[in-house]
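PROTEIN DATA CARD
Card holder: DUF47 family protein
Chain length: 209
Origin: Methanocorpusculum petauri
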Amino acid sequence: MGLKSWVVPQDKFFFELFEEQAEIVCEAADLLVNIFADYTNIQEKYRQMKDLEHRGDAMAHRAYDELNRTFITPIEPEEISRLVTALDDVIDYIDSGTNMLLIYEIEKPDSFMVEFASVIRQAAEEIRTGVAGLRTLNDPETIKGCCIEINRLENQGDDILSNALRSLFKTKDPVEIIKFKDIYEHFEIATDKCEDVADVFAAILIRHT
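Structure generated from the sequence above:
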């Protein structure tokens, strides 16, 4: 039986939780953009990022606990688990990439970091739109559009990484290479995790529409 045929009251919990997670993804992406736009008070801004990461973890734990207690779910339990995990992973990699700025004592971000932040923010907005559409699946074309755009943005993230590494390896400082490469790769993985969310969207569409 399709999702649209039998949404019952207790099912609202999972959709509300997905939406809360997606909102945290957007807040984390917004904060990342703001960090690079005004690169001051990084310690305090990272504390805000860590608070978002903790909120994301709490949402994920609530979802897993409820999943273990719920016999009937609005979509397949494995789909719920995959989506919760994918959303949490996006938050985790935005957080860990930001943490690298402190660990490596980066004095000034470069243009590639700014580009990564912009791509992640755009993907986060697509995630929020896609998640909102899961409640009823009345507009699968919108969700498909989100998947296509997230995939495009992930490819853009790959291009940014390639360009960033090409530029980085022209430098002569091996310590700088290690630092910046690690940061770039964390943010590129964040775009990969956004694509994981899109993959779950696509799987849900195939099964339920």
